[in-house]
Fold this sequence. Notes:
Strand content: 15-25%
Number of strands: 10
Low-confidence stretches: 22-30, 33-47, 65-90, 97-101, 105-110, 267-273
Mean pLDDT: 75
Radius of gyration: 35 Å
Helix content: 25-40%
Strand order of the largest sheet: 7-6-1-9-8-4-5-10
Number of helices: 10
Oligomer: single chain
Order of helices and strands: EEHHHHEHEHHEHEEEHEHE
Amino acid sequence: LAGGRSGGRAGGSFGRSSYRPPPISRPMHRPGGSRSPMLHPGMYRRHPAIYFMPRPGYYNNRGDLGGSGAAVSDAPTSSAGSESGEVIEMNDLVATTNERTSPNAMSSSRRGTKVVDPITYYAALTGVYGMIVYKANRSKNASGDVTNGSALGPGVSVGRLTVSLDISDRDDPNNALARIGDIAKKANIRSRKGVQSLVADVSLELLRQEAAVSAACSSYSHLKSEGAAERTYYQLSTVERSKFDRESINKFGGKNGLEEIIDDADNVGRVSGEPPQNKATSAVVTLIFQIEGDQTKIPTLTSRSDLKNALLRIAADAQTEEALLGAEVLWTPERRGDSITEQEVASLYPELRIL
């Protein structure tokens, strides 16, 4: 290996988005088939007022109506033979009471009857429902399980795709290493959208460089917990990065801050005007990702068709909503004067299979 194994890294890890739209539930119905007025207020011409009545005998015991009980006895009541769930209109009760009692007695009666405004009632009901949903989501997040809310399904997919390429001329600005290096340097790894674009652009570039691909391999695992998926992701990243002697480019952002190192790879270790020692080299590009759901499953790569389908799936799923939790692109050699042979590639990446 000439000049050591230089490598490049670009990507980011952001975790799950804090906002998740609540699931859309179907309208609920009562067992008898009638719709609930609380769930379907639009079916009424006006919102029904909710009244709270004192218990039976309340006024007689207090003596507010002179002990006669005439007002209460004249009010509409529910007899033993009436239908279950019959609603008593309190407006009739208040009107009857107003006719038979004095102003002082009526004042006392009004103090005993509370009228709840419909808007206040529905606002309170909405608040209670929101609190229930919030506590349920908080409990689910505390356990770390990713069970719903993602367009790509439950759980988290963690994958790695490695491609070996033959680079005939390092001076060619259109060779795979030069193109991927340019994409990485321009990528905005401070945002999830930027990392999504990075993964899509690198996948597209590898599809365009299909003629230079000599071998490939992949690995995939699906986990229920986001924490377990994140550990698996960083384990893969550490193993792949340990194959480099140094990282000439290291751009990694996300929830843990920004790490960015970019060396002048074209001039380090070279005399001015001197051409690179090696124009031809092998190269290795690796994509590591963690994406919500179970749809980004990468099969074992046995043909170029498998590689193409895997790259297309990664590029598409990485840009789906905010399903991409983290991803990075690794490539070697990075410095222009470095090269790596096919034997060294086979030693460092024994999982590679010739396509």
